[in-house]
Design brief:
The complex is a heterodimer.
Chain A lengths: L2 H4 L8 E3 L25 H9 L7 H11 L4 E4 L6 H15 L6 E4 L3 H15 L6 E4 L5 H9 L4 E4 L1 H10 L10 E5 L1 H4 L5 H10 L5 E6 L6 H6 L6 E4 L10 E7 L5 H11 L5 E4 L3 H13 L4 E4 L5 H13 L4 E4 L14 E4 L6 H8 L9 E7 L4 H11 L4 E2 L4 H6 L1 H16 L2 H10 L3
Parallel strand pairs in A: 2-7, 2-8, 3-5, 3-6, 4-5, 6-7, 9-14, 9-15, 10-12, 10-13, 11-12, 13-14
Antiparallel strand pairs in A: 1-8
Helix pairs in contact in A: 3-4, 4-5, 7-9, 12-17
Chain B lengths: L2 H10 L4 E4 L7 H32 L16 E4 L3 H15 L3 E3 L1 H8 L2 H5 L9 H7 L8 E6 L3 E3 L9 E4 L1 H8 L17 E4 L2 H6 L2 H9 L18 H4 L8 E5 L5 H9 L7 E4 L16 E6 L5 H25 L4 E5 L2 H13 L4 E4 L5 H12 L5 E5 H7 L8 E4 L8 H7 L12 E6 L4 H8 L1 H9 L4 E4 L1
Parallel strand pairs in B: 1-8, 1-9, 2-6, 2-7, 3-5, 7-8, 10-15, 11-13, 11-14, 12-13, 14-15
Antiparallel strand pairs in B: 4-5, 4-6, 10-16
The chains are: A alpha/beta, B alpha/beta.
């Protein structure tokens, strides 16, 4: 099914300018299948889009790009996987094409992986006009980043902490020439965690600039938005708040806490051959579960904040390439990452923020594809589940399993549990001996 | 300016690489003056440009990029073999820089010595002139010195990262550069070298050539820390990691060796081009041999450079050594001269295995062992003495008592050849029984031509006969 048509349900979306309060006319239904050239996007960029296989503008692109090209600030809200990155990349690139200069745009992202992904999009779309991008994230060498920055790339994609570090410590680097500031996953960036860093960055960026905020879930607190100091922004909303895509089947599975690992193994076993992301709450869990699953023969790989940057990128690449098809991740992977072939999202731990749920399940069923999500719920998590259901505005279906069939696995799973705890707590020699004895 | 200086300046000013392989005692000062002048000129010019740009930036006159710096301040690296050589260089710098005052001069003189020491070194010594010249002053080879130039002042012993010139020995740099895996290592100060000068480069072969290659490998790399550098003003080729293609490398040596050639080919990648200057050597030092002695040069056929050492050793075991042993029966003593320490170890082990009665002197021998060995050899208590080129370079012993000298390989220093032979004139019982023999292969062409002369060397390498006799 085509995305353009599919989204006609969403056009009840409201568009209004936050400051001026003007209502914006709804686009006519005929405009649903808009080609990019009709939106005054210049030819080289259209060509680039065609090469990448984007034929029609997605709703968010259709609605946001005209405003952006008029030079307005934008707050963009659209479901996960609906082409938000291109929605802000195209106007930025077009402005760059018209008036090229170094350090033209800065894109902020909450996680390092997302930053890399955004820069890939910029490079893919901007290759025709010769755009130069730099990724400035933590965990990488400061020196080579300083060198990359001093070559004045057109677009820098950064995580707030490292950008601030460079602003403070790299002599000769400044953002005085900046014309565009984009915050992807803006609600996360404007959160408490990043708050002070964002404030400091905003202090050294020129006031004469365009600011875009994009996310699938948006903060309502006006104070937070003010911090981003938008000027006369347009709010472009192509989904009601907290909406998930229709092509996504969402289930929950209720069972006692003590069988949690067992149920996870059962589910992964049922879906063997599909690629799945398992979301957990802590780095420790991610590590432990991937050991456990690997000892049971699942091609699992962990991704969490305690790994080095190289390992994080390697994990993601292995998962993308399909050499490992179970990714055990913490919330570092919950937002923004576009991995086309994810079939299932499993919430091993139920997300504590219901917003985070939207982002997690948004890793699957992207760009019109189908997908499935299953949330594991134990006796302790019922309230959280209800909160999520409340936000989604509907009940989730229960995932049907045969309980006896699950519990057959219990013995092998507890063996693997013992192995996983041993590996993470003991020096490797003992582990090898243990693994040898037990034929793991 | 002498014609030599004028000619060299024509190559230095356009920032071309130069390998000048005919440095000698007569032109050493002229060469030093000319490269000192060139490096000062470079430092003052870059400094003037930076100062001019600073004022432009302060006035905010221009919006275009002013890229006029490297990552770090040091832009000239001078590699010298001894502290004595540093004193000579600093003397030239002070003479030519036009600075009003010199800071830290007394500390420098304390650590490195004074020109007075150097000028009086030739008094009261029996060593040859070239030896005195090289070791005059403080002969220590472990040092590094930063020199900083400000508008009217020259500061010696300045901190590395605020220096313009770094003067160091290969060993001094090696200890600070460190090796992979070392905890504390630092070579960021080499990142922005624009002129690299190696004076007396041949003597680095007598020190440790590995250090020279090591320092060249670590020059013009992108630094590991930012070292407070202003990235908006770093030149683009530094950012791209291409600084080594714009570095000028000047090498001054007394003679050419395969090692120098390899460095010149491998590490001098200046895009502005390069010159190699060498001397035609028609006469050769063999003409300086005063004694009427038979000298036999035997060619060994080597198939490749890699196998040359093995094939030479095979030849020694099978052909040469049995003959030497026969003459030992007739109570005649042989000195075996070996330039390379590796070959020396190999032969020493070979003789050890065979229970041969021999003594050996190498660069690692204790002084007491050396004098014991020399006495034993002189009195005929042993038949063979092994002697290396490096120990001769550093001590110039007169090894007396030999009736044969066998050159396992010809010395790099051509003047060692007549020097070693001249000792034979002390032999009491006339010159009749004395013989000299030497091995050479086609890979020894450079050494050979310094001793026998260029055209003769060519004939000896290309000719059909495997042995050549000089008398």
């Amino acid at each position: 099914m085509d995305v353009g048509e599919e989204s006609s349900n969403d056009t009840q979306a409201t568009f209004k300018s936050l400051v001026s309060g003007q209502a914006w006319e709804q686009p006519s239904p005929a405009a649903n299948r808009t080609c990019l050239p009709h939106q005054n996007v210049i030819d080289p960029l259209c060509e680039a889009c065609e090469k990448l296989g984007f034929k029609y503008a997605t709703p968010i692109q259709r609605d946001a790009i005209p405003w952006a090209l008029q030079g307005r600030d934008i707050i963009g809200l659209a479901q996960t996987g609906s082409g938000k990155t291109a929605a802000f990349a195209l106007p930025v690139l077009q402005a760059l094409w018209e008036k090229p200069s170094g350090l033209f745009a800065c894109v902020l992202a909450p996680t390092r992986e997302l930053a890399f992904q955004i820069s890939e999009t910029f490079e893919a779309l901007g290759s025709v006009i010769g755009v130069r991008c730099a990724v400035i994230v933590g965990g990488m060498d400061m020196m080579s980043q300083a060198i990359a920055l001093s070559k004045k790339p057109h677009v820098i994609v950064c995580t707030p902490g490292r950008l601030q570090d460079h602003l403070e410590n790299t002599k000769g680097f400044h953002l005085k020439t900046l014309k565009y500031l984009v915050m992807d996953e803006a609600d996360r960036l404007l959160d408490m965690d990043f708050g002070p860093k964002i404030d400091q960055i905003l202090k050294v960026i020129p006031r004469e600039r365009n600011t875009y905020l994009f996310s699938a879930t948006m903060t309502t607190k006006v104070a937070k938005l003010q911090r981003a100091s938008l000027r006369n922004p347009v709010k472009v909303e192509v989904s009601t708040k907290y909406q998930t895509v229709n092509t996504l089947l969402q289930y929950f599975l209720f069972f006692p806490f003590k069988h949690k690992d067992c149920y996870l193994v059962y589910l992964l076993n049922e879906m063997a051959g599909n690629s799945a992301i398992v979301f957990v709450r802590t780095c420790n869990d991610a590590q432990r579960l991937s050991l456990l699953l690997r000892s049971l023969g699942f091609p699992a790989i962990p991704l969490h904040g305690q790994l080095s940057m190289d390992k994080r990128l390697a994990a993601l690449n292995k998962f993308k390439a399909g050499s490992r098809n179970v990714l055990i991740a913490t919330d570092v992977a919950s937002r923004g990452l576009d991995i086309p072939m994810v079939d299932v999202v499993l919430n091993y731990d139920i997300p504590t923020h219901s917003k985070e749920y939207i982002h997690r399940v948004g890793r699957t069923a992207r760009a019109g594809r189908a997908g499935k999500s299953i949330t594991l719920v134990t006796q302790y998590d019922v309230e959280l589940l209800q909160r999520i259901e409340h936000i989604l505005g509907r009940k989730l279906d229960s995932y049907a399993v045969d309980k006896d069939e699950v519990l057959i696995l219990q013995e092998r799973v507890s063996e693997a549990q013992r192995y996983a705890t041993l590996v993470s707590s003991r020096p490797s020699g003992i582990v090898r001996a243990y693994a040898h004895c037990h034929g793991i | 300016m002498s014609p030599l200086q004028r000619q060299l300046m024509g190559m230095l000013r356009p920032y071309r690489d130069v390998l000048y392989a005919s440095r000698d005692a007569a032109n050493a000062d002229a060469l030093r003056d000319i490269y000192t002048l060139h490096l000062l000129d470079h430092i003052y010019q870059t400094r003037d440009r930076i100062i001019k740009n600073n004022t432009r930036l302060a006035k905010q006159q221009s919006n275009d990029e002013l890229r006029d710096q490297g990552f770090t301040r040091p832009k000239v690296l001078v590699v010298l073999p001894t502290r004595g050589a540093v004193v000579r260089l600093v003397d030239a710098l002070i003479r030519l820089c036009g600075c009003d005052s010199v800071q830290n001069r007394s500390r420098f003189e304390q650590e490195y010595g004074t020109m007075k020491e150097i000028n009086t070194a030739h008094e009261a010594t029996s060593k040859p002139a070239d030896y005195v010249n090289y070791f005059a002053g403080n002969p220590d080879d472990h040092f590094r010195l930063g020199i900083r130039f400000t508008r009217k002042m020259m500061k010696l012993c300045s901190e590395f990262y605020s220096s313009d010139v770094i003067v160091a020995s290969p060993l001094g740099l090696r200890t600070i550069i460190g090796a992979r895996g070392d905890k504390k290592r630092d070579f960021d100060f080499l990142s922005s070298i624009e002129i690299l000068i190696m004076d007396q480069a041949d003597s680095f072969l007598m020190q440790n050539w590995d250090h020279v290659e090591h320092l060249l490998k670590h020059t013009n790399l992108i630094p590991q820390e930012s070292r407070d550098c202003d990235f908006s003003r770093v030149k683009n080729w530094y950012l791209d990691g291409r600084a080594r293609y714009l570095r000028q490398t000047l090498i001054f040596a007394e003679y050419l060796t395969p090692e120098l050639n390899s460095v010149f080919n491998k590490y001098c990648s200046n895009i502005r081009g390069k010159f190699k200057l060498r001397r035609e050597n028609e006469a050769g030092t063999i003409n300086d041999v005063a004694l009427p002695i038979q000298q036999i040069f035997t060619r060994i056929e080597c198939t490749s450079v890699a196998k040359a050492a093995d094939q030479r050793f095979e030849h020694f075991k099978e052909k040469v050594f049995p003959a030497l042993q026969q003459s030992a029966v007739q109570q005649s003593r042989t000195m075996i001269f070996i330039p390379s320490y590796y070959d020396y170890v190999r032969i020493r082990n070979y003789l050890d295995e065979r229970d041969i009665n021999f003594v050996d002197i190498c660069e690692y021998s204790e002084p007491s062992d050396i004098s014991r060995s020399r006495t034993a050899f002189f009195h005929g208590d042993c038949d063979f003495m092994l002697y290396t080129e490096r120990v001769h370079f550093y001590h110039r012993y007169r090894i007396r008592g030999a009736q044969h000298i066998f050159f396992y390989q010809l010395p790099e220093h051509a003047h060692f050849y007549p020097e070693l032979l001249s000792v034979l004139s002390d032999a009491a019982d006339g010159l009749r029984d004395l013989t000299i023999s030497a091995l050479y292969s086609r890979y020894d062409q450079l050494r050979l031509e310094r001793i026998v002369g260029t055209s003769r060397a060519l004939r000896m390498i290309q000719g059909e006969k495997p042995a050549y006799l000089f008398a």
